[in-house]
């Protein structure tokens, strides 16, 4: 079917998830991007890492029951999708998506592999993680994109990171934070609302 | 694989379609909603793509919330909620993961955070997850939820509503929304529904009641089509 203006529809409006998102929607392994399900074989491609941190609101008060979803490219910078020209070569064991849920202390965590960089429209994208956050009080999910400090050269050329004023770009870097369960850990704390120079930088499309 | 050009795949949200925040009387929106405007970014590959075979991670069920696995019936008015998951060009979206959660007939959620003085129904959990079929159809069998009050200053009642979370083909087509019931006077007073400024956009959040000749007499029928953003993100069949 080709585009026909008569078929045009408008997307539905967004609404908050409210305070009662069902705990039953979280199963063990949902925050592990390296495997399709808790009992599936994890991918063998890429360097495993843990991303963790907390979510706070106005006044730096930690927020329980916030839902985070993460999406990224595989270790070679490919997405298993028709929208990626090399999508058929993407890692078939890597789902690249996960969901985490903040604890009563506002803490979340993900397990994944370092995403690769890739070329798009003649520009090179630095390795990045797309994070979506939803919860009570957010009438629509907010999204951000996180980068790794060890890829400084790639970061400097990333067209999306370059949309952020230069002095603020560091605020989208995850911070090396030792090891968890024998793999490198990174920390990224989220402040949904606060002073302008501390609030997390969000993007919209 | 076919190369989809990743420019201009998504139309911007028309005015009045997105909820306006913060919402008066809904304190949480003032405490959570970012004070700074989000940075506009173009649509690139990383937004048009999304997890393949997500149902392997988010296990889907049969969508029957009205009867427990041991055959016990929930209390309330039985209803079937169904519809089509579509993109902006009216093309069906197969394999979308559709999550639903709702209050019971007395307006209470089976959730530890809901300690309102209303009865819990031991036979109603009020949540389910299904996968849309090859033509984009989904359906749930459930009961009609009750209204519940929002205990803030200038309190109001939330009209009966159902929460939906839909994971479509791309991360930009991710949708979280709520469905409302036609003809409910409380719809006019609901600050959350009315945070959507455009009347036509609000109407799209209200389900269509099915005539008994179509719905039958076993359960009420409500049709609720769900249109996701992202026209060209839907692979052509
Ligand atoms: Fe609700």
TrEMBL record, chain A:
What domain of life?
Bacteria
Query: Keyword set for this entry?
Result: Dioxygenase, Oxidoreductase
Q: Which CDD domains does its entry note?
A: 3_4-PCD
Please name the Pfam families in this protein's record.
Dioxygenase_C (PF00775)
Q: One GO MF term, please? A: ferric iron binding
Which part of the chain is the Intradiol ring-cleavage dioxygenases domain?
18-193
PANTHER family the UniProt entry points to: DIOXYGENASE, PUTATIVE (AFU_ORTHOLOGUE AFUA_2G02910)-RELATED, PROTOCATECHUATE 3,4-DIOXYGENASE ALPHA CHAIN
- NCBIfam families, per this entry? protocat_alph
Family, per the entry? Belongs to the intradiol ring-cleavage dioxygenase family.
Protein name per Swiss-Prot or TrEMBL: Protocatechuate 3,4-dioxygenase alpha subunit
**Which organism encodes this protein?**
Primorskyibacter sedentarius
TrEMBL record, chain B:
> Could you tell me the keywords of this UniProt record?
Dioxygenase, Oxidoreductase
Annotated PROSITE patterns: INTRADIOL_DIOXYGENAS
Q: Does the keyword Oxidoreductase apply?
A: yes
Keyword Disulfide bond recorded: no
- Residues spanning the signal sequence: none
**Which Pfam families would you find in this protein's record?**
Dioxygenase_C
List the Gene Ontology MF annotations in alphabetical order.
ferric iron binding; oxidoreductase activity, acting on single donors with incorporation of molecular oxygen, incorporation of two atoms of oxygen
What the entry lists under Gene3D superfamilies is as follows: Aromatic compound dioxygenase
Q: Name all Intradiol ring-cleavage dioxygenases domain ranges.
A: 81-109
The protein's matches in SUPFAM superfamilies, at most eight in alphabetical order, are given as: Aromatic compound dioxygenase (SSF49482)
Q: Which family does it belong to?
A: Belongs to the intradiol ring-cleavage dioxygenase family.
Name by which UniProt lists this protein:
Protocatechuate 3,4-dioxygenase beta subunit
- The species this protein belongs to is Primorskyibacter sedentarius
Taxonomy, top ranks, is: Bacteria, Pseudomonadati, Pseudomonadota, Alphaproteobacteria, Rhodobacterales
């Amino acid at each position: 079917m080709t585009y026909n203006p008569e078929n045009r529809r408008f997307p539905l409006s967004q609404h908050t998830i409210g305070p009662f998102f069902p705990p039953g929607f979280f199963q063990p392994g949902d925050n592990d991007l390296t495997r399709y399900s808790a009992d599936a074989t994890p991918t063998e491609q890429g360097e495993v890492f843990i991303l963790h941190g907390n979510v706070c609101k106005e006044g730096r008060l930690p927020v329980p029951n916030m839902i985070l979803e993460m999406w990224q490219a595989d270790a070679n910078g490919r997405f298993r999708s028709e929208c990626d020209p090399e999508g058929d070569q993407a890692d078939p064991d890597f789902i690249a998506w996960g969901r985490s849920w903040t604890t009563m202390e506002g803490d979340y965590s993900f397990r994944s592999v370092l995403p690769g960089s890739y070329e798009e429209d003649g520009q090179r994208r630095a390795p990045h993680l797309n994070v979506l956050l939803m919860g009570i009080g957010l009438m629509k999910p907010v999204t951000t994109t996180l980068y790794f400090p060890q890829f400084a050269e790639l970061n400097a050329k990333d067209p999306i990171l370059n949309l952020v004023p230069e002095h603020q770009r560091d605020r989208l870097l995850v911070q090396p934070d030792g090891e968890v369960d024998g793999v490198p850990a990174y920390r990224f704390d989220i402040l949904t609302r606060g002073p302008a120079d501390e609030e997390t930088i969000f993007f919209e499309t | 694989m076919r190369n989809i050009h990743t420019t201009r795949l998504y139309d911007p949200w028309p005015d009045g379609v997105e909820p306006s925040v913060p919402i008066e009387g809904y304190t949480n929106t003032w405490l959570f909603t970012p004070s700074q405007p989000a940075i506009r970014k173009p649509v690139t590959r990383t937004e048009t793509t999304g997890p393949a075979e997500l149902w392997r991670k988010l296990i889907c069920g049969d969508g029957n919330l009205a009867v427990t696995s041991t055959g016990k019936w929930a209390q309330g008015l039985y209803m079937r909620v169904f519809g089509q998951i579509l993109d902006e060009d009216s093309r069906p979206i197969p394999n979308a993961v559709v999550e639903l959660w709702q209050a019971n007939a007395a307006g209470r959620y089976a959730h530890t955070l809901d300690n309102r003085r209303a009865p819990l129904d031991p036979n109603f959990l009020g949540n389910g997850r299904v996968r849309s079929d090859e033509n984009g159809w989904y359906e749930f069998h459930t009961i009609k939820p009750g209204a519940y009050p929002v205990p803030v200053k200038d309190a109001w009642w939330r009209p009966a509503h159902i929460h939906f979370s839909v994971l479509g083909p791309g991360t930009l087509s991710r949708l979280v929304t709520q469905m409302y019931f036609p003809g409910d006077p409380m719809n006019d007073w609901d600050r959350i529904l009315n945070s959507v400024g455009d009347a036509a956009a609000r109407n799209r959040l209200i389900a269509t009641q099915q005539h008994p000749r179509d719905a039958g007499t076993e359960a009420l029928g409500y049709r609720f089509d769900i249109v996701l953003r992202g026209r060209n993100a839907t692979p052509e069949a």
